[in-house]
Specification:
heterodimer; A: 579 residues; Sodium/glucose cotransporter; 23 helices; 2 strands; 1% strand; globular; disordered C terminus; B: 85 residues; mainly alpha; 3 helices; elongated
């Protein structure tokens, strides 16, 4: 069986599995609903959260980005894991104590203001939308390769698939389906990494293999000597092509710090992740659930740098200096998508790679590296198919979930709850569908003109979350004096600043490079500055406006203690708002 | 809990947060970014040390920090008799 046949088989089988579990658990839960305790084990909840979390950005884009960024790419690794520490110690337990369903609801109650709730809702919709654009691009890349079409058609098909998946969407939020998705996703990531690690270094553990020494087969593939250290060989390959050594960092330190801050803080301000901690049974479960989610995420994230090292080394070694008339199979296979191009421009009959654009003859979009990695290492066709199934599962589940956030946000929270309270249920349903169709179409349009690689587009969503939600939620919990005016002004200022910066440098004027950036901070890292802007505005405006009412201040105080420790004797305990 | 106990409980929680986030910042922003070049002179498991912190050490530290916080807070809840069952 060829790669395409295997791909269809495994992709279809995995989706039958997801829907099968969804139908089965749904039927069962109808029976069990009033009988059984619905509490989900924190370990399984952590696994499901991990699935929600890891999208096309984590699965297919991050390692590819690291392959071209070297050590600086670890800003993404640390950003998208370190945020869980912030979540566990600063936000999750307190939001669980508060116990409502959505982040805009929390903002509305804590800041005693419908206006604050609406602003929060608009921020949530904007963040989810940018996030969907990244997923749409990811699905488009996968489909383009395996339907044998260009990236544009791939994205258009992706828009239809994402929309249908979101509308059918029965599986969203069903923990056991997400557990199955986690298993497929992690298998799709680890199996090829283990194969390549064994091939190159003989170690079955990719994170250790990355630091290992070459086997004879690995040495032959990379054109090195057996027993040499893989990282040393990769550093030499990089330097030979004119790049800095792979294990060194070459972006400005301030920018690496800024990207890491923006992603960590954005993680802790991302509405669809925060929601997961509202639904665990106990406050202490919110903490341990964050820990287990991080464990399951770390399995992929500690493997990702190994995949980056393997992909970088093998992709250069199988291409550089090879005859232009017989390009390696993976290069030819991806050429049709338009994401890979090569041409023997100097006419020496060989393909050359170089850090110098004028001499470089091979251009590979980093977003294809993880998908192409098993083909580059000539692994069996079923391994290639497993990667595709994992990538599609990761991208589609996240995209569909976010599409529902947008649809429900527009139809229920905005139109029905705020603007037109008398709207019928039927009208609300149609508004939701219209919002989902419009969001899919608009996201596809942006996905054809992406503001960066998939992981960078998603990083922009995190920057927006860092500049809007994190400051208002954190101040809402830890600072009783934060007022509604402060919150509204802070969210608005942060969102406009970060959104404006990203739009200016990534959409309107992509030709303006690092020389034009504020202090050399890239649009991926500007969320760190946006967060500071939002905090400053929030604090300044709060201090010059009237302090929040007594019952709101009591609500804030009550968030600090477990349920058994409600304030005694002081009368107002925030119960009114709390219910 | 009396108001005094509440204040002590909250103060202890803030102290835990301060210590854990200091470690969090030292490992990620310190060892993995700002000091990475200096640490690269040392080696661990075949890795330059700064590169190891950037790609492995920081993530493993984050996992450990969250579970340490879980343990500390559960113990604190028990001490004040507010552990949820």
């Amino acid at each position: 069986m060829g790669v395409i046949a295997w791909t269809w088989l495994i992709v279809v089988a995995s989706f039958v599995l997801y829907f099968g579990i969804a139908l089965y658990t749904r039927a069962r839960s109808a029976v069990d609903y009033y009988v059984a305790d619905r509490s989900v084990n924190p370990v399984l909840n952590g696994m499901a959260t991990g699935t929600d979390w890891m999208s096309a950005a984590s699965f297919m884009s991050m390692a590819g980005l690291m392959a071209v960024m070297g050590r600086d790419g670890s800003a993404y690794l640390m950003g998208w894991t370190g945020g869980y520490v912030l979540l566990a110690v600063l936000l999750a337990p307190y939001l669980r104590k508060y116990g409502k369903y959505t982040v805009p609801q929390f903002v509305g109650d804590r800041y005693y203001s419908t206006a604050a709730r609406v602003v929060a809702l608009l921020c949530a919709i904007a963040i989810s939308f940018v996030y969907v654009v990244g997923q749409m691009r990811g699905v488009g890349i996968v489909l383009a390769r395996f339907l044998g079409t260009g990236i544009a058609n791939g994205v258009l098909v992706a828009a239809v698939v994402v929309f249908l998946y979101g509308v059918l969407g029965g599986m969203k939020g069903i923990t056991y389906t997400q557990v199955a998705q986690y298993v497929v996703l992690i298998a799709g990531y680890l199996v090829p990494a283990i194969f390549v690690s064994l091939l190159l270094t003989g170690s079955p553990v990719p994170p250790l293999g990355m630091g290992g020494t070459l086997t004879p087969e690995g040495a032959a593939l990379l054109g090195a000597k057996p027993g040499q250290e893989l990282l040393e060989v990769l550093n030499r390959i990089s330097v030979d092509l004119g790049f800095p050594a792979f294990t060194s960092g070459w972006k400005p330190r301030l920018d690496v710090v800024a990207i890491t801050v923006a992603l960590m803080v954005g993680t802790a301000g991302l509405p669809h992740i925060i929601i997961r901690f509202f639904t665990v049974p106990k406050i202490r479960d919110a903490r341990s659930s964050a820990g287990w989610a991080l464990v399951f995420i770390a399995v992929l994230y500690t493997t990702a740098p190994a995949v980056a090292v393997f992909a970088r080394a093998t992709s250069v070694a199988t291409v550089h200096g090879r005859p232009a008339a017989e390009p390696p199979g993976w290069l030819a296979a991806w050429r049709g998508t338009g994401l890979v191009s090569y041409q023997d421009r100097d006419g020496d009959g060989r393909l050359s790679m170089s850090a110098d654009p004028a001499r470089n003859e091979v251009v590979v979009d980093p977003d294809v590296l993880v998908l192409a990695n098993p083909e580059i290492a000539r692994l069996p066709a079923w391994v290639v198919a497993l990667v595709v199934a994992g990538a599609l599962g990761a991208a589609l589940s996240t995209a569909a979930g976010l599409l529902l956030v947008i649809a429900a946000g527009v139809s229920h929270d905005l139109l029905k709850s705020v603007l037109y309270p008398r709207m019928t249920d039927r009208a609300e349903l149609w508004a939701a569908r219209l919002a989902a169709v419009s969001a899919s179409a608009l996201a596809a349009w942006f996905a054809l003109r992406p503001s960066g690689r998939v992981a960078e587009v998603v990083a922009h969503a995190f920057g927006l979350a860092a500049s809007s939600f994190f400051p208002v939620i954190l101040a809402g919990i830890f600072w009783k004096r934060a007022t509604k005016e402060g919150a509204i002004a802070g969210m608005t200022a942060g969102m406009l600043f970060t959104g404006g910066y990203i739009g200016w440098f990534r959409v309107l004027h992509p030709e303006h490079g690092p020389a034009h950036w504020l202090l050399g901070i890239s649009p991926e890292g500007i969320g760190a500055v946006g967060m500071l802007v939002a905090f400053s505005v929030l604090v300044a405006v709060s201090l010059v406006t009237v302090a929040p009412p007594r019952d709101v201040q009591d609500l804030v105080a009550s968030l600090r203690y477990p349920r058994e420790a409600q304030p005694t004797g002081t009368g107002g305990t925030g119960r009114r708002v709390f219910r | 809990m009396t108001p005094d106990q509440q204040a002590a409980y909250w103060k202890q929680n803030l102290a835990y947060i301060a210590v854990l986030l200091s470690i969090w910042a030292a490992v990620s922003y310190g060892a993995a970014i700002l000091l990475a070049d200096a640490l690269d002179r040392y080696r661990l498991f075949g890795f330059p040390l700064g590169f190891w912190f950037a790609t492995q050490g920081s993530i493993l530290t984050f996992v450990a920090l969250v579970f340490v916080y879980v343990k500390l807070m559960n113990d604190l809840d028990r001490k004040y008799g507010v552990y949820e069952r």
